[in-house]
Amino acid sequence: MKCPSYFKIIFLIQICLVSALHAFAQDEKVDSLSFLNRDTLFKELLIKELFISRKDTFFTKTDTLIIVKDLVIREKDTLVQFLRPILKDGRIEFIESKEIIPKIDTVIVHQDTLRTKNEQVLKDIQQFSQKKNFFSQLIKNFLVFETKTENQEKPESREKSDERYDSYENKVIRKIDIRVLGVFGPSVDNPDKKPRGFLEKSGNALHIKSQKWMIKRRLLFTKGDKVNSLALSETERLLRATSYAYDAKIVIVDYEGLDSVDVVVLVQDVWNISVGGGFDQKTGSKGFYIQDANFAGLGQQLLTDFTFNSRYPKGMNFYGNYNVNTFQKGLINANFTYRYAFGLSSFIAGINREFQTPEIKWLGGVNYSILEFWPYNMPFDSFRVDQKIKLSVEDVWAGYAFPVLQKKEGEEGSRLILAVRALSCLYGNVPEKKAGRSFTYYSSDNVFAGLTYINRRFFKDRYIFRLGRTEDIPIGKMIGVTTGIKKRDGPLLPYSGINFTVADFLPKFGYVSVTTGYGSFWRKGKMEEGVYYGRLLHFTPLINFKNWKYRNYISFRYTQGLNQLDGYYVNINKENGLRGFISDGLVGTKKFVVNIESNFYPPLNLLGFKMAFVLFADIAWIGLNGSLITKSNYYSGFGLGLRFRNEHLVFSMVQVMVGYYPDAVRLNKTPLQFYERSRFFYNFLDFNYSRPGQEPYL
User: Whole-model pTM?
Assistant: First the structure.
């Protein structure tokens, strides 16, 4: 980052003044610190235990230490560190040196360059871990200290992800080299870095790396193609979006005088296997799960989850999922899920190709589901086995993405997507329809058609929804219109809907996204199953304070249903409104929710687990009819917690939270709640186009 011109002028004036003062001191043979004793120096710098070398230095009244020669930091009589000042990109930086070499130029060091007492404690622990005794090696294996470079490292969040390939555009790809990095130690920015400690080395030895042929099938370019910035950046993003990649980076090796380049694809794996279990003292339930996010390095995901309780039908609940996306460049996804819970079973299967990247032209999918559930309006204790409602769903869709506005600046990758969908829902064993009430369980046949414009690009940053892992921030705009028709009870019901989303990332302001939409069926000129909604999300840029990081989030959500069927309501439970809050009886047809959160990231991790301290405040209004913003419709929650996770592992994020809900007493609930969560509260507004259909009622 370049310094402003006025800063350069001030900087030069200070150098001249310092040089003159230094020359005057030498001519008069006077110690340059004769007017400033050690206690005064410590008081000004707010440092109690460090000794600053006095030779050729002096301290001004503006809290600026001006140094002619290298800075020496001592603690008591023991040499701690030699620091050599260098001028880099208009900023003063210090590098560690084994020798103090006198410098001719004068440099200026601000107070926060000096290490504080807390930093010295961490430094002492780190130095102790380098010793050869048992306890030192134990600390070395469990604690990982971030270096200043690692802690302040930031991806290209100030430019779009595809812009760094612009200078190589249209050069021929001569060779593609795929390197799969181990889970621990190396990174895509430092692929030759070695693992540290016994645990990291053992983890890499036991891990089965992703197969190179599988990575190759996900590339959107091949040998002999011309460099296309969008194809390279999208490949990098798609690799990061997989369950088995911690990070991915594409590096171009250019040869001077040649019109061809070599491409190096770096992919760092995650530890793909996780096993866990638990026991619920209140219900007596106990269970375990096994997950493999990259079976045999083939990019396939397996998950099985068992929960046991003598009160459950058959004494057990089970969930199993199998997912594979290693064919057709990984852009086709096949997913199979089976669940048996509380006497109800469900099976879902589907093969889909969605709009994951502008490189995709043809979209489509085939999906089939068989679901069982209890009637919504019956008490749980009154259910009988023969009252289980069965629902089978057949869903087929197809679409095509047309390139549009390609020659307009900023519109590269823009697409206009035309898609059609046929959806059939067949209910079985439904309860008797009651007079005077809307009936939910109508079988129906639906046809939808949609036309959507998408212009989407990405920034990269860290510490957004993850703890240090590179994340892709979608920006751009999307507008879509949907029409359709439903065959249900009586006449055909036409459908109309529209949605609009815009998002951008500004370096000084942060990320902001807004989405709004409407959709409804129509019966005799009146809306039925209608919904209006609006969403706004903003988070600040990552703020560095010494070795800590900070980011703030705020979101607004509004939903209103219009003539929804009986049993279809909105709520403010957990992710739908107040995190950690649950009330099955608190429902409505409309709601307005505000969520605020602050995250503080310390510079220390344990066994690779990084952490964040969390403060949050949630407020919500929910109602059925009449005015929404009233005292009787108001609910709130406030709390704090600790979030930690090792992003190199496939384990879910662990969050231990405590929340206070002052309005819970109106619902005969305890205001203070302790709870655990496994995923982040916020999400980017979705730019991934799937199939046309009804606007969501959430």
Answer: 0.71
